[in-house]
Design goal:
about 0% strand; single chain; mainly alpha
């Protein structure tokens, strides 16, 4: 905490952990819905390369937790970094969903992987949200009869 009583962190890191866990489990649900709707989950030029649910968890949790920690630590010194990181992460997730579309073997896989990228991007956006703003509450006198 600073001398003025304000926390010296841009956001609470636990919100990154919660967002990573939530996004990971939501992405696994999307993964299984995609498989149930006919997605082969084959990507790339190698037809034996299949995305599994463990890959979904790895590539959701690791970036959110590791990069969230980096933004948290850098954001303690420069609070403006968090707002930039929010938008950069969301843009990267949306742009990388194009790679998922281009490398997928079928349309159902492309849609499933794109949704997973978008969910991860939205989770990132809200995970590193700068939440330590002062609250201004208007005080009103209430008379109870």
């Amino acid at each position: 905490m600073t001398a003025q009583g304000q926390p010296n962190s841009p956001f609470n890191y636990i919100q990154v952990v919660i967002a990573a866990l939530g996004a990971g489990y939501l992405n696994v649900i999307i993964f299984f819905i995609g498989i149930a709707s006919g997605a082969s989950m084959k990507v790339g030029s190698n037809p034996e390369e299949i995305v599994g649910f463990d890959n979904i968890l790895q590539f959701t949790w690791l970036p959110l937790l590791v990069l969230g920690l980096v933004v948290f630590l850098i954001g303690r010194a420069k609070k403006g970094v968090t707002k930039v990181a929010q938008w950069v992460g969301l843009i990267v997730a949306v742009v990388s969903s194009l790679a998922a579309i281009l490398s997928a073997a079928d349309a159902a896989t492309a849609l499933t992987l794109s949704l997973i990228h978008i969910v991860t991007g939205i989770a990132w956006f809200f995970a590193v949200h700068y939440g330590n703003k002062k609250l201004h509450v208007a005080s009103k006198d209430v008379v109870l009869a």
